[in-house]
Amino acid sequence: DTGVSQDPRHKITKRGQNVTFRCDPISEHNRLYWYRQTLGQGPEFLTYFQNEAQLEKSRLLSDRFSAERPKGSFSTLEIQRTEQGDSAMYLCASSLRWLAGGSYNEQFFGPGTRLTVL
Amino acid sequence: DQQVKQNSPSLSVQEGRISILNCDYTNSMFDYFLWYKKYPAEGPTFLISISSIKDKNEDGRFTVFLNKSAKHLSLHIVPSQPGDSAVYFCAASDTQAGNQFYFGTGTSLTVIP
Hints:
The structure holds 2 protein chains of 2 kinds.
Chain A lengths: L4 E3 L2 E4 L5 E6 L6 E7 L6 E7 L2 E5 L7 E4 L6 E5 L8 E8 L12 E2 L3 E5 L1
Parallel strand pairs in A: 2-11
Antiparallel strand pairs in A: 1-3, 3-8, 4-5, 4-9, 5-6, 7-8, 9-10, 9-11
Chain B lengths: L3 E2 L4 E5 L4 E7 L6 E7 L6 E7 L4 E4 L2 E6 L4 E6 L8 E8 L8 E2 L3 E6 L1
Parallel strand pairs in B: 2-11
Antiparallel strand pairs in B: 1-3, 3-8, 4-5, 4-9, 6-7, 7-8, 9-10, 9-11
């Protein structure tokens, strides 16, 4: 296991279709994040899991978006009824929990899934 | 509402010289800051971090400075190398409030050989 992997790397879909992305984090990492990045912007937080529990969701995450991490390992992000505004790079990151002694682990990012909605 | 700002979209530096990338934030509750580097077609890669209890953290050629009163941090790269050419993002978090990280818009650094 050499890092965070995401599948697919690219997805082109028509408006109104549903899409699902997968993220496989670094195996010992119990925290998993989803971000969205559009051109010229930094990554925007979407949601966060600790193990299988989804603990935080951004206001950006509309009800068309749903994320799961059923066994606390890989995660999926589904977008229903895609819109052209959903076109973006979707990034997944993983990290360990806050370490004893106050050292905070950084997030390791995957290569992202580029979504284009026509 | 952009809580983390990188006001310089791009920066060019000669190889061997110092690169200084700047980042400003508005939320005084942010207590943990990171810098990431991103190459095209790859996800961001962690570079260096700093906690609000410090004002400087150094790792090899990379040093991050934090000025809490000014809500400003900077990344210094000395000496700059052509392989440092990438987009650099700063990110901040209020670790007491949760696990959300706020990213700046990035600065594209070009190191000229």
